[in-house]
Amino acid sequence: MPDSDSFTIEPSSSGRMLCGGCVPDGVCRLGVEPRDGMWFDVTCPRHWQGGPGVAHGGWIAAAFDDVLNTAALRTEPRMVTKSLSVEYLRPVPVDRKLAVLARIERHEGREWTVSARMTLGADTLATAHAELRTRRPDHYSRHEHWLAGLPLPTNEN
Ligand SMILES: CCCCCCCCCCCC(=O)SCCNC(=O)CCNC(=O)[C@H](O)C(C)(C)COP(=O)(O)OP(=O)(O)OC[C@H]1O[C@@H](n2cnc3c(N)ncnc32)[C@H](O)[C@@H]1OP(=O)(O)O
């Protein structure tokens, strides 16, 4: 059985950064593409629509989570998100290429503070702020151990 704590997000053979869920597809299902430096192109796929022609807020948060972690993953391959806050300033259109610029605000030991801004032309549509952590070496094995100790679910719960 592979050691879950050896999991890292690194560029695939195609050069793409992909999360564990997207590796089998070879493409980011959220529509996030790293561009230059801390710039990213993001396009909300229509199936993440929340209202007519506009993105679901959960997609916006997930896209920011990818962007903010990818910014830190360039230095440290083992990251998790501790907190994420999003300000939704304007509706975000689906099927339109948007720009996101990320920024590392602070990095000290395992602690990272990062932020990002999503824009279309000159307009800011949303901003995000997150605290990230470099994973402890036993992060996933501790989780698996905890889960294995839980009672098995029954039909009543
Ligand atoms: C372009 C395409 C993009 C491609 C690239 C795509 C990148 C995608 C990246 C996605 C990143 C994510 O969304 S990650 C998924 C969402 N995030 C998570 O699942 C993190 C869940 N939260 C945690 O594991 C924890 O709260 C931490 C690690 C964040 C806590 O960190 P911390 O604040 O530094 O504190 P720490 O001292 O480590 O731990 C605080 C308390 O939590 C306990 N604790 C910590 N870790 C664990 C653990 N694994 N299992 C059990 N318990 C734990 C500690 O014992 C302690 O308990 P006590 O001593 O207080 O009792």
UniProtKB/TrEMBL annotation:
Its EC number is 3.1.2.2. It comes from the Bacteria. One of its GO terms (molecular function) is hydrolase activity. Gene3D superfamilies: Hotdog Thioesterase. Its main location: membrane. GO terms for cellular component: cytoplasm; membrane. The keyword GTP-binding does not apply. Belongs to the THEM4/THEM5 thioesterase family. This is Acyl-coenzyme A thioesterase THEM4. The lineage of its organism: Bacteria, Bacillati, Actinomycetota, Actinomycetes, Pseudonocardiales.
